[in-house]
Design brief:
It contains nine helices and eight strands. The chain is an alpha/beta fold. Helix 1 packs across helix 4 and helix 1 packs across helix 9.
Length: 288
């Protein structure tokens, strides 16, 4: 059985194998894991990741336990480690975890159950990176040579950090853009104007106010005008370029309402692909 903690621990071939299996699931693969029990431990709010894992697990015939931290012994002072160890002691076959701490899994080396990282702090989000890759590959049939700009709150985004790490390995050209205070200096910056003309993929990120120590200085309207995507900006994009977003979307901030489901948008395709990618991850977990 195999954990999935970070895609940095996988080879490019292993990543492509997960994507191929995800495509098989999208085509209707009947693979099942009916004798397995999975526990979803989300210590941070989530809609898409949590419930697409849930749907993936149900599609595979797994028995599913969904943990609610608000009604758990965490309220009584139980530690993160002891909570996870408790579920492992129940005899579950796999644990899916999201946590606010970077590399939370370093604390879980004594847990003898496969762990799937559903997002750790601001560092990594393996299943999101995989569904982003699947969406791009479906669109272009390749990675090498494609240009992507990830725009917005880069500093606090595990999606940006995880995606760029793997996309560069796959020979994509990665850039970032957005307000100076949200940038990470280790990445190549591109202006909105140049991104619209040059990029094959523009991925917008929400402003992660819950991770900020200070409130955003701009109003929502100012942010949309300066750093967001409006329909007039979309019309300046390359003909075959696409728009992506890991969601949740703050409509009227990083995207105007009419852009969310415009012809270039693949946002809900990403969400749909997330189920198939997570089925593939679970299949890999129990492969020999």
């Amino acid at each position: 059985m195999k954990s999935l903690l970070s895609l940095d621990l996988l080879t490019n071939d292993e990543i492509m194998d997960i994507l191929k299996d995800a495509q098989e699931f999208k085509r209707g693969s009947s693979f099942q894991l009916k004798d397995k029990i999975v526990a979803n431990l989300f210590f941070e709010p989530s809609t898409r990741t949590h419930y697409s894992f849930n749907v993936a697990e149900e599609k595979l015939g797994m028995k599913v336990l969904n943990f609610d931290p608000g009604s758990s012994s965490l309220i009584k002072g139980e530690s993160f480690y002891d909570t996870v160890k408790t579920f492992a002691s129940f005899g579950v076959d796999c644990i899916v975890i999201r946590h606010t701490q970077n590399r939370y899994y370093d604390e879980l080396k004594n847990i003898d159950v496969p762990i799937i990282n559903a997002g750790d702090g601001t560092k990594d989000h393996p299943s999101q990176t995989l569904l982003d890759l699947m969406t791009i590959y479906e669109e272009f049939g390749k990675f090498s040579g494609l240009k992507i700009a990830i725009m917005g709150d880069i500093k606090h985004s595990r999606v940006a950090h995880g995606d760029i790490s793997i996309m560069e390995r796959l020979n994509m050209q990665c850039y970032t853009s957005g307000p100076d205070e949200y940038q990470d200096d280790k990445y190549s910056f591109i202006s909105m104007e140049d991104a619209l003309k040059e990029m094959d993929v523009i991925m917008m990120l929400r402003v992660q106010n819950e991770r900020h120590t200070e409130k955003m200085k701009l109003t929502n309207e100012e942010y949309l005008s300066q750093y967001g995507l409006t329909l007039d900006k979309v019309n300046k994009m390359k003909k075959n370029a696409i728009i992506m977003h890991p969601a949740p979307v703050n409509r009227g901030v990083e995207l105007s309402d009419e852009v969310v489901e415009c012809s270039k948008s693949r946002i809900f395709t990403q969400i749909n692909n997330g189920v198939f990618v997570r089925q593939s991850i679970l299949k890999r977990t129990f492969s020999k």
